Amino acid sequence: MNFNTISINNNLILRIVRPEVYSFVFSNYNDEELIEFFGFTTPEELTKEKKRHEKGMTTFNKTFIFFHILENDKNVGWCGFHTWYTDHARAEIGYVLSNEASKGKGIMSVVLKAVIDYGFNTMNLHRIEAFVGPNNVPSLKLMEKYHFTKEGHLREHYFKNNKMEDSVVFSLLKSDYIPIN
Predict the structure, then answer these.
(1) ∠ at Cα 60 (130, 40), nearest 5°?
(2) Alpha carbon distance 140, 80 (integer Å)
(3) Residue (of 90, 35, 26) closest to 68 by Cα position
(4) Average pLDDT over residues 104-117
(5) Prediction pTM value
(6) Confidence check: pLDDT of 126 > 90
(7) Are 53 and 43 in contact (CB under 8 A)?
């Protein structure tokens, strides 16, 4: 399968993963290849992803599109849109850098610009939503940098590390988006 990519700079490439790519790799790759493709660091992450795939990733009006972040051809994380409501032209953005050596280098700041641009210009989104932990300082700074509007605080909204955590709700409307160079 030919994977579509977006080149960010000499070191960074985004590999586009749509539902059909997801199905292809699970049908054709062995566990070792899947771990490398997804950039997992443990077999437990692969097991969790296999279960998610078995449950199905799309419905009649909800789907996803995300981008593997390839730094020097190694998968170091992802950024993209899960919970994309096609009928309503809105999606929730999410992102993770799974490689510790890649953190703190401004990678997500560069990637987020490309993904937001893709969302508004290619997916024709009207609204991008983000849910951020109130103590997640790097993500809160990204929301500020990209002029997301804080809309509220959801109590015990997200299950992480075996406990319920709050989320701060942000949105960015296409009409409010100011591309950053």
Answers:
(1) 50
(2) 17
(3) 35
(4) 94
(5) 0.85
(6) yes
(7) no
Q: How confident is the model at residue 132 (pLDDT cuts 50, 70, 90)?
A: very high
Provide the residue count of the chain. Answer: 181
CA distance 67 to 14: 5
- Which tokens belong to 157? 């909204």
8-state DSSP, 98: -
Q: Residue-wise over 59-98: b if at least 16 C-beta within 10 A, else e? A: eeeebbbbbbbbbeeebbbbbbbeebbbeeebbbbbbebb
Tokens of 11: 């070191």
Mean pLDDT of the chain: 90
Structure tokens at 112: 């987020």
Instruction: For residue range 141-172, list pLDDT tens digits in order.
Output: 999 999 999 999 999 998 888 999 999 999 99
- Confidence category of residue 99, pLDDT binned at 50, 70, 90: confident
Token pair for residue 5? Answer: 């990519």
Least Cα distance to 32 among 20, 48, 46, 51 occurs for: 46
